[in-house]
Automatic annotation (TrEMBL), chain A:
Membrane topology: Multi-pass membrane protein
Pfam families: BPD_transp_1 (PF00528)
Keyword Transmembrane helix: yes
Source taxon at top rank: Bacteria
Family: Belongs to the binding-protein-dependent transport system permease family.
UniProt keyword list: Cell membrane, Membrane, Transmembrane, Transmembrane helix, Transport
Entry's transmembrane regions: 7-29, 67-89, 110-135, 164-183, 273-295
Domain ABC transmembrane type-1 per the UniProt entry, residue ranges: 67-294
Name of the protein in question: Carbohydrate ABC transporter permease
Subcellular localization: Cell membrane
Alphabetized InterPro entries for the sequence: ABC_transporter_permease (IPR051393), MetI-like (IPR000515), MetI-like_sf (IPR035906)
PROSITE patterns tied to this protein: ABC_TM1
High-level lineage: Bacteria, Bacillati, Actinomycetota, Actinomycetes, Micromonosporales
UniProtKB/TrEMBL annotation, chain B:
Compositional bias segments (type: Low complexity): 16-33
PANTHER family: ABC TRANSPORTER PERMEASE PROTEIN MG189-RELATED, ABC TRANSPORTER PERMEASE PROTEIN MG189-RELATED-RELATED
Source taxon at top rank: Bacteria
Chief subcellular location: membrane
Membrane-crossing residue ranges in chain numbering: 45-67, 104-130, 142-167, 173-196, 217-239, 277-298
Membrane-topology annotation of the record: Multi-pass membrane protein
Keywords, sorted A to Z: Cell membrane, Membrane, Transmembrane, Transmembrane helix, Transport
Record carries keyword Acetylation: no
Family: Belongs to the binding-protein-dependent transport system permease family.
Protein name per Swiss-Prot or TrEMBL: Carbohydrate ABC transporter permease
Keyword Membrane: yes
InterPro entries: MetI-like (IPR000515), MetI-like_sf (IPR035906)
Length: 305, 312
């Protein structure tokens, strides 16, 4: 090893590693212990209560409602987003496949990719504030204004228990789709053109080409995308916190409550830090369980080309 | 886990394909030429119809917010379709000053500038050392950082709140910048390590022979060479920190230390009660436009890099 490299390595790593351990690693590590205490955050005293927070969790109705909402999000958001993303990507990518005899972007493909992707770079808080107004219950909201043109009565999207959560999920789909359109058009563009030509000569329809050729060849990407979407769907905190009724209550009547927001309220409104951290651990377990299950379910033969 | 260089999937989407197909292949395909042209046209109308519908669904809410920001509050309430009688630029002045959007904007700029500079300098150092030096614990350092990408920030917030308060990092712009920077480190280290591995070893060797020390080689040779990698990682770090919501919500308690996202969410609640819709839409527009400008200027790098980030 070159002279003085030990000194360089130590001096280069010291500050980042120390800051990272204090501010990132130690909070993660501490949270497991805090979840076993009755800490209220105000007094320095915290008593070890064993698994009491976890048994309380099991009997907490709001926890189960939130968990159920998270599960709905984890299934619905990836399925809808990936379906739309694949659909639009195929439209852009092979829109003129028959007419031109090759895979070529549809005219204006670059425009669609740029426009669709934009919401993805906006802050979820900004998107949340925007859509809280799009969903405004009076006809001055954009959506009810549109319904008004069709002479349909205004709907209280975020205030009605039956529509509130679906309205929030729709916003996440709205902002995510563009990202997957870009991702899928990129992965479709590396498939050799000869394969499409061969399929065309064999008389395959567009539908067959998609199911038998395109989808299997980009399956790895779709699979990773699904897991990634699901993990992000588990953290619905920002959008629920911004959009749900009465300043992030998860209302109306917990109709939009999710684990992230319930954790936040339990900690910073109710000062039950021990219990809140137990919710955090449950959320982590749910994340790991989801990643494991989805990788198992989507496992397939890998195709090389 | 495979390592992608940040620029890996930057595939050229405008690849030209042959416009005219040779007569031989034409005959091989079914139908006459006119048939296919007609079918192609019908397909294009259908395709564009659907693609344009989604484009409208994306653009309409954003355009509506910008349009509403030029209206009076009464006009906002009248109809989403009405045009402003006269464009009210004073809405922006009001949002910027009275509703404090200007202050939040300034706070965000300070935190993000400092935070991303810290992320890039620390990230580049760690990545360079991990990529170019072999020492005991090299892998351990790398995985320590990269593991941070897999944990939800949520789990950390309760202890982080107390640690930050104890260290005097809570409710401080500099403190928030430091916390942003360490939470962006996993991403930066992951991508920059892959990037430094791709740089030729001969460069560093030459620098050593010319008498550069380790720091000199890093600062004067390797950092300038790694500039494209630093730029693409930098774009994401800046966007990510600009849009951060959870961390400031927990750490910034006094309103004069709020960042833009937090201030805007707060404004949405308070202005909604106060009925001042035009200031709210102006605030929303102020929050969207800078991101739109950055996005349109760097959309190629942003799309390529974000896609690379998703498929780790």
């Amino acid at each position: 090893m070159r002279a003085g490299s030990r000194g360089f390595i130590v001096s280069a790593l010291a500050v980042p590693v120390i800051l990272y351990c204090v501010l990132v690693v130690s909070p993660y590590a501490q949270s497991f212990y805090i979840s076993l205490t009755d800490w209220n955050g105000l007094s320095p005293q915290r008593n070890f209560v064993g698994l009491a927070n976890y048994t309380r969790l099991v009997h907490d109705d709001v926890f189960w409602i939130s968990l159920w909402h998270n599960v709905i999000a984890v299934v619905a958001i990836p399925v809808v987003t990936l379906a739309l993303g694949l659909f639009f990507a195929t439209m852009i990518r092979v829109g003129r496949y028959r007419a031109r005899g090759g895979t070529l972007n549809v005219r204006g493909g670059a425009f669609y990719r740029v426009a669709y992707f934009f919401p993805h770079v906006l802050s979820i808080a900004v998107v949340g504030v925007l859509f809280a107004n799009v969903y405004d219950p009076t006809p001055s909201g954009l959506l009810n204004g549109l319904l008004g043109v069709a002479e349909i009565d205004a709907v209280n999207w975020l205030g009605d228990k039956s529509t509130a959560y679906a309205a929030i999920l729709a916003v996440i789909v709205w902002l995510s789709v563009g990202f997957y359109v870009v991702l899928f058009t990129s992965s479709m563009s590396v498939i050799p053109v000869e394969l499409f030509e061969a399929a065309r000569l064999d008389g395959a329809t567009r539908w067959q080409t998609f199911w038998r050729l395109t989808l299997p060849l980009i399956w790895d990407t779709v699979q990773v995308a699904g897991v990634y979407l699901g993990i992000h769907a588990l953290d619905m905190f920002a959008i629920v916190n911004v959009m749900s009724a009465a300043g992030g209550s998860g209302g109306p009547d917990n109709a939009t409550q999710v684990l992230g927001n319930y954790l936040y309220l339990t900690a910073f409104s109710d000062s039950e830090f021990g219990y809140a951290t137990a919710i955090g651990v449950a959320l982590l377990l749910l994340t790991l369980l989801f990643a494991w299950v989805s990788l198992r379910l989507t496992r397939r033969e890998r195709i090389e080309y | 886990m495979s390592l992608n260089a940040p620029s890996a999937p930057a595939v050229d989407e405008q690849n030209p394909a042959p416009r005219a197909t040779p007569a031989g292949t034409r005959r091989a395909a079914s139908g006459t030429a006119t048939d296919r042209t007609l079918r192609g046209t019908a397909l294009n109308v259908f395709t564009h119809g659907i693609l344009l519908t989604w484009a409208a669904m994306v653009v309409l809410p954003l355009a509506w917010a910008v349009l509403s920001s030029f209206k009076t509050s009464d006009e906002v309430l009248a109809s989403p379709w009405s045009l402003p009688a006269t464009p009210r630029w004073e809405n922006f002045v009001e949002a910027w000053t009275t509703a404090e959007i200007g202050r939040y904007f300034f706070n965000t700029a300070v935190v993000v500038t400092l935070g991303s500079a810290l992320t890039l300098s620390m990230g580049a150092l760690v990545a360079y050392v991990v990529a170019r030096y072999s020492f005991r614990g090299n892998r351990a350092v790398y995985y320590l950082f990269v593991a941070g990408m897999t944990f939800p920030t949520f789990l950390a917030i309760v202890p982080l709140f107390f640690i930050a308060r104890g260290l005097g990092l809570a409710d401080s712009l500099i403190g928030l910048a430091i916390i942003y920077s360490v939470y962006s480190l996993p991403f930066a280290v992951f991508f920059l390590t892959a990037y430094f591995r791709t740089l030729p070893a001969a460069l560093a060797e030459a620098a050593f022979i010319d008498g550069c020390g380790h720091w000199g080689t890093f600062l004067r040779i390797m950092l300038p060479v790694a500039r494209p990698g630093l730029v693409s990682v930098g774009i994401f770090v800046v966007l990510g920190q600009w849009n951060q919501y959870l961390l400031p919500l927990i750490l910034q308690s006094s309103p004069d230390k709020y960042v833009l996202t937090q201030g805007l969410a707060n404004l949405a609640v308070s202005q909604g009660y106060a009925g001042n819709w035009s200031a709210l839409f102006a605030g929303l527009t102020i929050s969207i436009l800078p991101v739109l400008v950055v996005y349109l200027s760097f959309q190629r790098q942003i799309q390529a890099g974000m896609v690379a980030g998703a498929i780790k």
